[in-house]
Amino acid sequence: KHIHYGGIEAGSLDKSGSSGNIMAPGDNDIVDTATEDMMRARQQHEDAVRAFEQKSQQRQMAVPTGDVQVKAKLREFGEPVCIFGEGPYERRDRLRTIMAGRTAPTMEAKRQEATADEDLFYTEGLEELLEARVKIAEWSIPRANQRLIKERRQRAEEDPLEYEERVDKFCGFLQKSMVAEVSQVGDERPLTHGKFSPDAQLFGTSSWSGFIKLWKVPSCEPTLTIRGHEDRCNSIAWHPGCKGTPPFEGKQVRLAS
């Protein structure tokens, strides 16, 4: 026998089919996905899942432990207090099943309410919020467009591998030329960002603790600590007109997020 690699020509396929070596499936050989066996198996699976959920609900129910309380509860539901051959354990289990059956519609109603709460809805916002978002968009969209144009031009003019190699060389040059002047613990949580003020007299840091700290340059002494966010501060930016050190000549510190 020989094994041949490659595509099978249509003529060879027809010849093999006529000789009986290849049995192509016909319309009668296609199995319908919705057969009776599959429908029966699907129904059995749904019944098993429903029974499992019902047992889970029964285990979570608060059922009286005392036999006297169990009988009183059965009497409230209008059920037989005692069945022939039934002990305290079986009686309590029967009460659990009865209580699960009585509360089943309530559980289904709660499930429907939870599904209804997930529906999409809109609330009318304030005019001040709309104006703020419009100003943010007018400030952000042109800058994002300029950034994308610059990145596209850079990709078209320079090979990505050459650019990456140039950046690596520059980072290596910075590492060799940098010297640690001071060392200071920035925060109890990890720092996320750091930036010098426009006049280079202060250095601002943000951290996961939500605090923003300002440090004097070059002594690296903390001069101001403010709460920037309830959870985490991921970045910090200076106003272009910010100069001097706190209290900034009587001006207030304004935060935006």
UniProtKB/TrEMBL annotation:
Annotated segments matching region Disordered: 1-29
GO MF annotations in UniProt: U4 snRNA binding; U6 snRNA binding
SUPFAM superfamilies: PRP4-like, WD40 repeat-like
Record-level GO BP terms: mRNA splicing, via spliceosome
Domain Pre-mRNA processing factor 4 (PRP4)-like: 65-117
UniProt-listed InterPro entries: PRP4-like, PRP4-like_sf, WD40/YVTN_repeat-like_dom_sf, WD40_repeat_dom_sf
Top-level taxon of the source organism: Eukaryota
GO cellular component terms, semicolon-separated: U4/U6 x U5 tri-snRNP complex
Any one Pfam family match given in the protein's UniProt record, by short name: PRP4
Protein name, per record: Pre-mRNA processing factor 4 (PRP4)-like domain-containing protein
Organism: Strombidinopsis acuminata
